[in-house]
Design the sequence.
């Protein structure tokens, strides 16, 4: 809802959620606003919704170029890199991504590693051979390994590399256990500069308990 109350709003908002209750709740809240933003609500798994997202996006051409920003905020590491890639190829799009590395990838790492049929990590970091690569890697930290592979995948799409200083880890207050990492990917230096100023002005903890 906060993004709908910006002083300088976006021209169009597209929300995707696979939970019908969340879509209904959001729709109800949007209906209470004293103005009518241009919004499309898409019910479905985002990894299967790129076609619908593209249909909902405003038209653009070489004269009327489109700048877009995508916030990816899942509960788990169930984002497919191919979804980001499809959007990144279609639009000049910056991404703010919540990487659920602590709450999911690290906590369930043993299961994902041992179950050869499980493709969650491979899909997230665009690396089908990730188990072999992790075995060969000198990096034993699962989180740092996944961040580095995710970064390489984003660089292949033309995004600027996100260094550790661009990661905003969110931990359980007082216990130090990392929950997730927020990171911004932009192809433009200015996008990364905005993110650096945002991080410089943000509280290192968001007060999660
Ligand atoms: C952390 S909440 C999002 C909160 C929201 N950004 C906000 O500020 O209120 C995560 C949401 O992602 C949705 N979700 C998780 N995986 C999804 C997927 N693969 N496709 C679509 N929605 C998904 C869940 O149903 C849930 O509503």
Sequence:
């Amino acid at each position: 809802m906060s993004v709908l109350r910006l002083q300088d709003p976006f021209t169009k908002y597209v929300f995707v959620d696979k939970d019908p209750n969340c879509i209904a709740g959001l729709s109800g809240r949007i209906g209470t606003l004293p103005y009518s933003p241009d919004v499309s609500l898409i019910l479905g798994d985002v990894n299967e919704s790129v076609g619908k997202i593209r249909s909902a996006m405003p038209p653009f051409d070489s004269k009327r170029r489109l700048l877009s920003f995508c916030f990816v905020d899942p509960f788990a590491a169930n984002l497919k890199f191919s979804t980001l890639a499809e959007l990144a190829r279609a639009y000049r799009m910056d991404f703010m991504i919540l990487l659920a590395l602590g709450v999911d990838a690290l906590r369930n790492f043993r299961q994902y590693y041992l179950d050869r049929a499980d493709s969650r990590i491979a899909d997230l970091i665009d690396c089908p051979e990730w188990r072999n690569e992790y075995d060969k890697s000198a990096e034993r930290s699962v989180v740092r390994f996944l961040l580095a592979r995710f970064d390489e995948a984003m660089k292949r799409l033309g995004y600027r590399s996100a260094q550790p200083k661009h990661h905003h880890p969110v931990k359980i207050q007082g216990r130090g256990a990392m929950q997730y990492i927020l990171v911004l990917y932009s192809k433009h230096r200015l996008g990364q500069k905005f993110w650096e100023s945002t991080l410089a002005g943000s509280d290192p903890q968001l007060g999660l308990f």
